[in-house]
C-alpha cells in the first residue's frame, strides 16, 4: 500500500545568464542532486520537472527594460491621468514595473491597493487593526492621509517595507496611493485604468 502522496523538492541551480544551456544545466543538476549523499532521492518515470518562466526568459535574454515599458505606456496612453488597480505588493517586481509606468504616463498616477491585503495575502494593514479600526473610515475607498491617521505606519512583516511610501517615493509629485476593494473606485480618478491584479485580472477588467 502506498502511504506517501505527491511530494515536491526545490533544486538549487547555478546563476543562469543569457545563452546558458538550460536543458543540460537542469538535467545535470537534478541528477547530481539525486545522488547527493546527504539527501538522495530516486528519479522515477512520470516525475515532473517544473521550471519558472523567469529562468527560461533569462537564458533566452527575453526581457524588457524600464525604458521599454515607459515607451509602451506612452504609445498606449498618449495623455492624461492613469489609475492602476490592485497590484501584488512587491519590491523587486511591481515596484520596478511601476517605475517604468510612471515614467511613461504624462499625467498623474494613482495606485489603488486592495486592503487589508493583496490577492496573495501580502498585508498593507495589520489584520487586527483592520477589524478593530475600520469603522473609523469615512468610506470604503480612502487616501494615504486617512490610511496613516486610522491605521498608522505598517511595514510588511517579512520585507520590513512600507509599500505606500515605497511606491510614492518613485515620484511624490506624480504618484498617489489610494485604498479600495472595488475596481470601479479607480474611475473616480481616471477613465484610463491599468489592471495590475493577476488572478482576478479578467474579473476586474470585465467589471470596468
Keywords, separated by commas or semicolons:
8 helices; alpha/beta; 9% strand; single chain; 208 residues; globular; 34% helix; 5-stranded mixed sheet; Protein-Tyrosine Phosphatase, Chain A
Taking pLDDT < 50 over at least 5 consecutive residues as the criterion, the unreliable ranges are none
Strand order of the largest sheet: 3-4-2-1-5
CATH architecture of the largest domain: Alpha-Beta Complex
Number of strands: 5
Domain module count: 2
Distance between the termini: 53 Å
Radius of gyration from CA coordinates = 22 Å
How many DSSP helices?
8
Q: Quaternary state, please?
A: single chain
Structural class: alpha/beta
CATH class of the largest domain: Alpha Beta
Secondary structure layout plus pairing:
Blueprint: H1 22-34, H2 53-60, H3 66-76, E1 82-85, H4 94-104, E2 109-113, H5 127-133, E3 142-143, H6 144-151, H7 163-168, E4 175-179, E5 193-195, H8 201-207
Parallel strand pairs: 1-2, 1-5, 2-4
Antiparallel strand pairs: 3-4
Helix pairs in contact: 3-4
Amino acid at each position: 500500500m502506498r502511504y506517501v502522496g505527491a511530494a515536491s523538492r526545490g533544486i538549487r541551480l547555478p546563476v543562469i545568464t543569457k545563452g546558458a544551456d538550460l536543458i543540460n544545466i537542469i538535467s545535470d543538476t537534478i541528477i547530481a542532486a539525486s545522488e547527493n549523499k546527504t539527501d538522495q532521492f530516486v528519479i522515477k518515470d512520470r516525475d515532473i520537472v517544473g521550471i519558472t518562466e523567469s529562468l527560461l526568459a533569462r537564458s533566452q535574454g527575453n526581457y524588457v527594460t524600464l525604458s521599454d515599458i515607459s515607451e509602451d505606456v506612452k504609445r498606449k496612453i498618449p495623455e492624461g491621468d492613469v489609475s492602476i488597480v490592485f497590484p501584488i505588493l512587491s519590491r523587486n517586481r511591481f515596484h520596478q514595473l511601476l517605475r517604468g509606468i510612471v515614467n511613461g504616463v504624462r499625467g498623474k498616477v494613482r495606485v489603488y491597493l486592495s486592503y487589508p491585503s493583496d490577492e496573495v495575502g501580502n498585508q498593507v494593514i495589520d489584520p487586527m487593526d483592520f477589524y478593530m479600526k475600520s469603522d473609523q473610515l469615512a468610506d470604503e475607498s480612502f487616501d494615504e492621509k486617512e490610511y496613516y491617521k486610522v491605521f498608522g505606519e505598517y511595514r510588511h512583516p517579512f520585507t520590513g517595507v512600507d509599500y505606500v511610501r515605497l511606491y510614492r517615493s518613485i515620484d511624490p509629485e506624480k504618484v498617489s496611493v489610494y485604498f479600495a476593494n472595488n475596481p470601479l473606485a479607480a474611475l473616480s480618478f481616471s477613465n484610463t485604468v491599468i489592471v495590475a491584479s493577476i488572478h482576478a485580472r479578467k474579473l476586474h477588467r470585465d467589471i470596468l
